[in-house]
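S2.1 Query sequence (DUF1540 domain-containing protein)
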Amino acid sequence: MPDVKCSVANCKFWSNGNNCSATSIAIDVDQHANADFSSEFAEDFNGHKDVASSAGNTCCHTFKPKE
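Output structure tokens follow.
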């Protein structure tokens, strides 16, 4: 797993040094920001392809708030 940097400190997977400690990462384009990949159709993310015009047009679906 490559080093994944994250500055969202209220995420369950955030760790010291602005690192992401999740075992897998799901990233999509902003137009799918509200997609629910935890539903029974989560496997639809596999093989799903979009094109982002810049890093600013992407979002991380791995985020979970700290409890």
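The mean pLDDT is 77. The chain has one domain: 14-60.
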